[in-house]
Design brief:
two-stranded antiparallel sheet, 5 helices
Length: about 130
Amino acid sequence: MRFIVKVVVVAVALWLTTLLVSGVTVVPWEDTPVATVLTYLLVAFIFGLVNAIVGTFIRIVAFPIYVITLGLISFIVNGLLLLLVDWISDLMGFGLRVESFWWGVLGALVLGLFSWLIGLIVRPSKD
């Protein structure tokens, strides 16, 4: 259940990111509202998998670089992960489109910010 909530949170954050960052768009396979929502959910699912598998591996291997740069390298890594999701979804013929590396870095920054804010709202209380 928690994974589904995280996917929905990332999908909503991705939608808000595409509204704010012009270099990041999502292309659905059809021009229907249902196809658009399903595309956002699918891209969020792919992003979750890539972040969990590839992102975790990179964070473990590059830990010294994270320490040296005080974590600022995470912006670059998250931008590259967003470009990887763009490549994977491009293989399917629809999904995330990122214009360039720097749009990916900005998109990852905005996506992370929106995910964090929405996660604060959706997170259940500990009471």
